[in-house]
Amino acid sequence: MDFCLTFNCNGKVNLNDWELDRNGLFIRGEVENILYPQDDCPLSEKHVQLFNYSMPAATALLDLKHFNKCMNMQLKILSRYETYNQVLSSKTNDVDFYYIRCVISEFILYIRMYLNSIKGNYQLLKTINEDIEEEFNELFIIMKHFLERIHNIPDTTFHYAPSKLGNQCIQPEYHMYHMHIELRWYFISLMYAKNIYCQYSIENHLDEFENIQTMIINDLIYISLKIFETMPLIHVQQKTPYNCTCIRELWLMLQIFIDSLFDRMKSKSFWMYINDCINGLLNRNVSNKNKEFLTLCKNSELFCLWIVYHLSLLYGYNSDGVYLGARCSRIKSNYEQLERILKTYISKGGKDGERDEIDEELRIMISLLNTIVINWWQPRVSIISLLWDCFHKRLDEPFLLQTSGPWTLSVEKKSTMDLLKQIKDRINNTECIKESSYGMFLRLLGSFLRINYNNNDTKHWNQIKGRIYSKFSKSKVEEFSITGLYNFISLFLTLAVTADTINVCSVMLDLLPLSKEYSSENSKKHNLIWKGKLAVLLLYNDLKLNLTNIVPLYIDTVNTICCRKDDTSRAMMNNFVDVFSTILSHDSTELGEYLLFSGWIDRYLLECSNKMVGTLMNVLVNVFERCIYVAKTSNTGNVEQMLDVLWCYVASRVRQLVFDPVFTNEHYKNISKLAVLFTLEALKNPTMAKKHKHSATSLFQLFASSIVVKDIRITRHYLMLILEQDQAIHDLKKEIKNFDIILIQAWIKCSIIGHDTNKDEVKVLQNYVLELNDINEIFGTSENIQEFKNNDKSILMFIMHSMKKRNTLKTEQERIQYDKKWKLYFNHLEKWILSPITEETKDSELALWIYRCIGTLFLCTSIMLYSKNQPNSIFKILLNKTILSAEQPFLKNLGKKTFSMILLGMEALNVKSDISLQILIRDLFDQYMPLLIVPTVNANSFKVSDSLLKCFKDAKADFIRLIFEILMTNFFNISNDNMMHKHSYLVMILLQNLLKEINYAYHITESIIVICTSYIIGCYIKVHDHHPHKQQTIDFIDNIIRNRYYKENNSLQNKFYDIISTSVRKSLIINQHNTFAFLRSILSISTEIIQFLSPELEHNLSDLEINRRPNAASFRYSWNQLQNLMKSIKTNH
Predict the structure, then answer these.
(1) d(C-alpha 432, C-alpha 309), whole Å
(2) Residue partners of 661: CB distance under 8 A and separation at least 6
(3) Confidence at residue 489, expressed as pLDDT on a 0 to 100 scale
(4) In the prediction, which pLDDT does 284 show?
(5) Cβ count near 204 (within 10 Å)
(6) Within its chain, how far is the Cα of 841 from the centroid?
(7) Residue 336: partners with Cβ closer than 8 Å, 6 or more residues away
(8) Which residues form the Protein MMS22-like N-terminal domain (predicted)?
């Protein structure tokens, strides 16, 4: 027969591996064999091998005394290896230690089987062997003596004795230790088998049997204690009380065996044995015998809880060894012991925080308790209450202000959403490695309530809230530091999330101080209080609870703090707006959300940051759109209430937002959307709009045509959205008679100052405008219309085709009506056209584009814009503001690029008969000459701008003559102090440039000779000798003589001679000296001119001498000098 049955070690216990060894005692039915032995075990024909002796199984027991000695000898062999011995260790190869375990196992199992086979015939066995009782006692004494040697084993053995090699391990310590494990089971099972079948029932030996079981359990706890005492606190959750899988298996066998006896014969339960053993550790009221063993534990409460926790998990095995976990029917709770452990912990400093490592200890304890209290055992509030006693006095400690993990943000930086999210995540998160002890308590509390709170059965909840609420008062909460408040808020939010939300939030809001009453010293504290209160709003929203009863508590505070400008108020408002946004992002309008609207919105939009504006505007748009959708699908009073507060608190502010270009820069779309929504709603419900002093007409006129709209994108986006609503267009046309004119004006405005920003939106406006008959007729042909549609610069085409259309009109009356309508299209153009241009943006592409449009408008439509009888015509106002602006001199850099377009546009006007236009031309040259004629890198020369020269290339002869006349009459007048105009020098450069170039028409040279020569010579005569004009005059005459047209045309030469002759005749009367100086100067250029003048000069001299004039002598002298000089020149040539 093979009776060998031993544990087979798999090394240290893996927390996640619950599978039992297939060759272990439990799986091979050892517990089942003890509790329910086989009825038929005949031994008469079998032999058994005991300590190398083969004997009949039926009679081997008669030599029990001998076999006792054999077993004792084998146990002594193993006992030698309790401590390390170098001599013995060198001889281990000669000893088969596993064999020793096997022969002892075979011997004890044989005896147990023998007893089971004879059952009630134990008395007959005594008859055969009178000493059998004494021999059995000797057997138990031998076993007990060996088991007591467990305390002789060094602590290190408990750590390294386990081995994954199992029974193939050759270490003697391994087998010695496992003999201890096996013999404990054999001891209990053999005593049970002997007593249950002897003439005395086991009830008579129950005390003795229980003592044995207590001893065994004490020994196992001793082993666990040896493991625990060397373990750092941080490893407690990762380690088990089982130093090897065999110990765990033995614990499981004892647990099932003892609880089975408890059910069958009312003996002690497994937990009773455990509690009796560990109570000594908790109370330290023990005999001297155990005092040394028990005082080894430095943290007895944690150790006891650790043992209870892991033994509780063993209840997850069913009787077949399959691990079912919390689903197993064997589970039995042990709350009494947990309560005793926690009460002891509290009494030893756990309540007042007097323990050195209290938070780390509590982290471990709560983690262990969380598993068994929440997942394994039936609910009981006592554990929560006892743990609460460990915290409520210490709420001012920074439990939740962690230094690692996902929630390491400071309290200041945590938003309201962060607070509530942390609460929910803490309850839902199974991993709590980074949580503080208080955080883990809150998780346990929340999990407990989530599972056990029921509206119909509030027993647990009433007990918990009674214990928690009683610890707080208004005065106590007010005294909390920021840390205490944070812990307080976290506690109540945990309760609110998992239990009676309305009740908890009401109590919490009542206990928290007022948020609007704060000073600079406690501002951070009140900011946190405010976040806590806002979390209540969020929670109400999450749970779909009606806000009606609590919102007024908030709005009063919000209306107060929104008027303040300190950082704390701003932070509080930002937090409120975030919560406001979250609540109103949901689809519901039935829970009193409209009450959140109040006067704070108007004030806040005026003061807040760009980021918060975006948040709030998005919310308002979404709420409005949702109201409109709900109103279409159902008719509810709540929608009406929401629309009413939108009109009341939002509409006026939206109208005012268009005045602020900085504000609207990033949020123009939302402003436009809100404006459209209010406009459409005013069309549908004019009564409500009128109630709040608004109307669809006033809204449309503001956003579509008002010049106060600082950002053209608002108008463009607004109109695009309006044009998507056919019914809205129809209704607005009824209300606004000039609707189409406003659209045309808006398109023009968008095309000019909103160029290249959003072409698609401009196209929507353009397509609508093109459908209008008046606009469509301007283009005439389908080709022109198609080109207009496809052109990126459609506004320029519109201006040019408008002029072409006017030219086709036959009667003056038609042209007058046409011009009147055209002016209407560009009404107030001067008030908005420069709005995007500043000192910083003057060189931008948009600025250049705007001035290109201005130039094109002047070039093509001056005749349509100008009215002689209207002093403030669009033409003059626009010219003075954009080209001749004195307030914004930087605009001249843009104006010079369009100079030729402006001047050429004026050609179509009757400038000759309009002195005001002549003044404008004078002012144009006066302001722009220094910008159009500038020095080159070589300071001795000047560059004339193409924009200026283009005027003389493209203008007609009459207009050019008029320009020269204006230049001469305004820039070549000599003042009383003989000073010339400051720009005369530049005019001379222009004239000489025109004379030098060969690309100009004949009439330009002719006009310069006929109009300018006399003015130039006249100034020459009057200025002082070293004036630059003198040289410029000589250069001017030289350029005329060299001019191509002058050389080729005798008539032009004659005109020039006549003009010089007339000028000399006049100047001789005024200043004879300067006249002869002039003649001497031009002699080197052209002797022909002097020869032409000689007869007249001789005649004048003769008259002077005949009449004996005083200056006759000087005249004669100057004339002789001039003649001699002329002869000298001819001789040299």
Answers:
(1) 18
(2) 710, 711
(3) 92
(4) 64
(5) 12
(6) 32
(7) 275
(8) 6-548
- Amino acid sitting at position 956: K
Distances (CA, A) of 634 to 337, 628, 629: 61, 10, 9
**How is residue 59 written in tokens?**
């009679």
Q: Which residues, 6 or more positions from 66, have their beta carbon under 8 angstroms from its beta carbon?
A: none
Q: Give the torsion through C-alpha atoms of 973, 975, 978, 984, to 10 deg.
A: -40
Rounded Cα–Cα distance for residues 606 and 737 (Å): 34
Please give the Cα distance from 67 to 730 (Å, whole number).
Answer: 116
Listed residue (483, 458, 35) closest to 261, CA to CA: 35
Contact 987, 944 (CB under 8 A): no
Spatial CA neighbour of 742 closest among 690, 693, 697, 680: 697
Give the whole-angstrom CA distance, residue 985 versus residue 992: 11
* Confidence at residue 516, expressed as pLDDT on a 0 to 100 scale: 74
Please state, in angstroms and rounded to a whole number, the distance separating the CA atoms of residues 806 and 815.
6
Helices 482-498 and 416-428: angle between axes, nearest 10 degrees: 60
Contacts for 1118 with CB less than 8 Å, ≥ 6 apart: 1072, 1073, 1076
> Scanning the structure block, which residue is given the tokens 């959750």?
237
Separation between Cα atoms, residue 799 and residue 939, nearest integer Å: 42
Query: Could you tell me the pTM of the whole model?
Result: 0.76
Q: Write down the residue that tokens 């086709």 correspond to.
A: 808
The Cα 1127–Cα 1118 span in angstroms is 14
Sign of CA pseudo-dihedral 1094, 1100, 1103, 1109: negative
CA distances from 355 to 168, 298, 350, 358 (A): 47, 12, 7, 5
Q: What is the 3-state secondary structure (H, E, C) of 811-837?
A: CHHHHHHHHHHHHHHCCCHHHHCCCCC
- The residues of the chain scoring below 70 in pLDDT are 1-4, 39-42, 44, 84-93, 120-130, 197-205, 284-297, 350-354, 356, 399-411, 430-433, 520, 635-637, 661-665, 939, 1133
For the chain, the C-alpha Rg in angstroms (whole number) is 56
Confidence (pLDDT) at 313: 94
Torsion 520-521-522-528 (CA) sign:
positive
**For the chain, what is the largest distance between any 2 Cα atoms, rounded to a whole number of angstroms?**
196
DSSP labels for 899-925?
A: HHHHHHHHTTS-GGG-HHHHHHHHHHH
Q: Quick one: tokens of 368?
A: 């262990």
Q: How many other β-carbons are positioned within 10 Å of the β-carbon of residue 103?
A: 20
Helices (H), 658-725: 661-684, 686-691, 696-705, 712-723
| H, E, C per residue of 505-560 | HHHHHHHCCCCCCCCCCCHHHHHHHHHHHHHHHHHHHHCCCCCCCCHHHHHHHHHH
The residues near 6 (Cβ < 8 Å, ≥ 6 apart) are 25, 98, 101, 102, 105, 167, 178, 182
Q: Which pair of structure tokens corresponds to residue 577? A: 């707006």
The DSSP code for 323 is B
List the one residue out of 1042, 1020, 1022 whose CA is nearest residue 1032: 1020
Contact 77, 100 (CB under 8 A): yes
- CB contact at 8 A, 1074 and 1020: yes
Distances from the Cα of 632 to the Cαs of 48, 629, 854, in angstroms? 95, 5, 47
What is the secondary structure of 937-953 as a DSSP string?
A: SSTT-EEE-HHHHHHHH
* H/E run at residue 48: strand 47-50
Q: What is the C-alpha separation between 182 and 175, in angstroms, rounded?
A: 10
Asked if 955 and 904 count as a contact pair (C-beta separation under 8 A), the reply is yes
Contacts by 814-818, CB closer than 8 A, 24 or more apart:
818/864
Q: What is the pLDDT of residue 416?
A: 87
Q: How many CB atoms lie within 10 A of CB 845?
A: 10
